[in-house]
């Protein structure tokens, strides 16, 4: 049984890359492929793995260039990656992975976070939303092509894995898979996070600084509230966001895993203003014993326990409207009941999503499906 793992790309530190690491832990004998790899901008653990790349890695070492060159160069590069010698191809991603050459006799399992966002949900990109005239026409033309080829290549997957019911429904609508979709929640490495005996005077937000992450909403709210907010991350909207932030808001990027762990453990609460397909960062905050203030849609409904009048037996406070006033109201509530939250209860909740749990479920799923596949 020869296994290949395919990760869309390896140029950042996010939940998808953590899934790829867990795939390799589940199947350490597997060969690992990706479109482009920058060892300095993704998780250091990948340096211990022999990562095979396409030629796309020579021209796309940053997220900006990856997005700009995906169509057509990224697709062309991945189509030239020949994985026809493998019995099982295990894919982690939304876009690049599905284009590799695969034997018709191989079992293909895809852990898909959401249908390719540009093709199936272009309004989540500010560049599309703000486009008009000929630029919008060009966008729509490319999107029409991408949707067609994305659907076609997705049909080579025998089994899709999804993060939540919401993402499962999206995959069903977009790809109309031939087999039932199984939900396996993504992992959080709880060993990387610890509790502190005393918390600090700040709230924390960890995110890529992109349009759909709604960091601007948090900045607007904390400009009004005046409480200290630390924002960790970088992205194409970084300078815009810094320009509108008041002095009580601090931006950091390029910090170590240890520094991030300390920030999580020391925060009053973690701020999560976006509609996310899943969201690993709230669970990382939970693994540090800290509660979450989150927008009450999407994956957070799967991973968090909302509080009632106090924080007992809860991990979070939800706000229902994706507006600054609604977030302000939730933060003010947190200020009143923060001592009711139990860090040990919150930590124990996060451990239910630990990477060891995920690894066992993935390994069991793949081996069972391969055994069934060989009987056909």
What features would you describe in this structure?
- The protein has 376 residues and is α/β, with parallel strands linked by helices.
- It has two domains: 3-187 and 354-375, Rossmann fold, CATH 3.40.50; 190-351, Rossmann fold.
- It is 41% helix and 16% strand.
- The chain is built from 14 helices and 15 strands.
- The strands form four sheets. The protein has a seven-stranded parallel beta sheet, sandwiched between helices. Strands 10-11-12 form a three-stranded parallel beta sheet, sandwiched between helices.
- Helix 7 (215-225) packs across helix 12 (324-337) and helix 10 (281-287) crosses helix 13.
- The radius of gyration is 21 Å and the shape is globular.
């Amino acid at each position: 049984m020869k296994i290949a793992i395919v990760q869309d790309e390896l140029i950042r530190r996010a939940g998808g890359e953590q899934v790829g690491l867990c795939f390799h832990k589940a199947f350490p004998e597997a060969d690992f492929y990706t479109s482009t790899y920058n060892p300095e901008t993704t998780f250091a653990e990948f340096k211990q793995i022999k990562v095979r790349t396409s030629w796309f890695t020579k021209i796309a070492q940053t997220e900006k260039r990856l997005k700009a060159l995906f169509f057509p160069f990224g697709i062309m590069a991945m189509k030239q990656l020949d994985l026809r010698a493998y019995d099982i191809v295990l894919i982690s991603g939304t876009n690049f992975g599905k284009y590799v050459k695969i034997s018709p006799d191989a079992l293909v399992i895809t852990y898909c976070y959401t249908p390719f966002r540009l093709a199936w949900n272009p309004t989540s990109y500010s560049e599309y939303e703000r486009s008009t005239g000929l630029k919008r026409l060009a966008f729509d033309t490319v999107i029409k092509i991408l949707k067609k080829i994305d659907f076609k290549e997705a049909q080579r997957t025998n089994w899709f894995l999804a993060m939540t019911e919401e993402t499962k429904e999206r995959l069903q609508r977009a790809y109309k898979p031939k087999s039932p979709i199984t939900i396996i929640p993504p992992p959080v490495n709880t060993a990387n996070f610890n509790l502190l005996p005393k918390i600090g005077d700040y709230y924390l937000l960890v995110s890529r600084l992109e349009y759909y992450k709604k960091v601007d909403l948090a900045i607007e709210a904390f400009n009004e509230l005046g409480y200290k907010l630390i924002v960790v991350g970088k992205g194409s909207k970084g300078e815009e966001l810094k320009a509108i932030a008041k002095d009580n808001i601090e931006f950091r990027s390029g910090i170590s895993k240890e520094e991030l762990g300390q920030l999580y453990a020391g925060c009053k609460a973690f701020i999560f203003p976006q509609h996310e397909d899943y969201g690993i960062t709230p669970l990382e905050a939970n693994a540090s014993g800290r509660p979450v203030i989150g927008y009450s849609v999407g994956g957070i409904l799967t991973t968090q326990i909302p509080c009632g009048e106090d924080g007992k037996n809860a991990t979070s406070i939800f706000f229902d409207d994706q507006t600054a006033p609604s977030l302000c109201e939730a933060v003010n509530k947190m200020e009143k009941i923060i001592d009711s939250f139990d860090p040990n209860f919150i930590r124990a909740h996060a451990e239910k999503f630990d990477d060891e749990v995920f690894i066992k479920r993935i390994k069991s799923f793949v081996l069972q499906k391969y055994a069934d596949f060989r009987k056909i």
